Amino acid sequence: MAPPTTGPSRPSGRPPRGRGSTGPRSQGRARNRAGADITWVPLPTEPEACTAVDTPIGRFVLAGRGGVLTGVWLSGHERSPAGPQAGGDGAPVEAATQLAAYFAGERREFELAVAAEGTPFQLAVWRSLAAIPYGTTVSYGELAGRIGHPGAQRAVGSANRANPLSLVVPCHRVVAAGGALSGYGWGPERKAWLLAHERGETLPQLR
Fold first, then answer.
1. 51-79 pLDDT, tens digit each
2. pTM for the whole structure
3. Catalytic residue selected from 112, 116, 169, 171
4. What is the tens place of the pLDDT at every residue in 178-200?
5. Which of 91, 84, 110 is nearest to 15 (CA)?
6. First-to-last C-alpha distance (Å) of the chain
7. How far apart are CA 157 and CA 177, in angstroms?
8. HEC readout, 57-114
9. What is the dihedral of CA 190, 191, 197, 201, to 10 degrees?
């Protein structure tokens, strides 16, 4: 299990290529201007297993199948499922390592294989979320336009709330048209913390 991280200052440049190349990489990729490399793959059939990582905003449980990340949940939160058994060969250990590095300020992008179940609309929203660059935000309306559904910001908000891969698929980077930090499942204080973290601010832990 990764320890709590407060971390050193951010290095410049991108982490070495291949650091997060876990699982098959034959399906769609979501790239952003900063170089993030999220690979969407079909949901594996292996049993689900999990690991956990302690962060400055709480403990997160990460679920995976065959090393492919399938869920990121705030432990004990009302939205979190009961979850699979801890450990196991399919636990997303690499994802936990990269998430700890993100909170330490050592990683700005994730290089992982991910899988999720959802409607075609939800999947389109989640793939678009994965392409939002680190340290930037978009509005719900702008995201709706990006996926070809202008005016569907309410539906985009609902898809955001259903996102099973939070942090890695960064729904915290979507804000209201006026900049309000609304609609985040882990609470507005965590959303504010994450956005401030990505601006390079030094922040107290949230527990």
1. 999 999 999 999 999 989 999 999 887 66
2. 0.80
3. 171
4. 888 887 888 999 999 999 999 99
5. 110
6. 18
7. 12
8. CEEEEEEEECCEEEEEEECCCCCCCCCCCEECCCCCHHHHHHHHHHHCCCCCCCEEEE
9. -90
DSSP string, 151-193: T-HHHHHHHHHT-SBTTTS-GGGEE-TT------TT-HHHHHH
% of residues, the chain, pLDDT over 70: 77
Q: Write down the residue that tokens 């058994």 correspond to.
A: 85
Give catalytic status of residue 171 as yes or no: yes
Strand-pair partners of 73: 61
Report residue 171 CA to chain centroid gap: 7
Identify the three-state secondary structure at position 19.
Answer: coil
Amino acid at 25: R
* pLDDT number for residue 79: 63
Contact 168, 112 (CB under 8 A): yes
Tell me how far apart the alpha carbons of residues 22 and 191 are, in angstroms, rounded to a whole number.
27
Distance CA 121, CA 137 (A): 20
Q: Which of 153, 152, 205, 160 lies closest to 186, judged by CA?
A: 160
The continuous run of DSSP H or E covering 130 comes out as: helix 120-130
Q: Which domains does the chain have, with CATH numbers?
A: 29-198 (1.10.10.10)
Q: What is each CA distance from 98 to 111, 161, 187, in whole angstroms?
A: 8, 23, 23
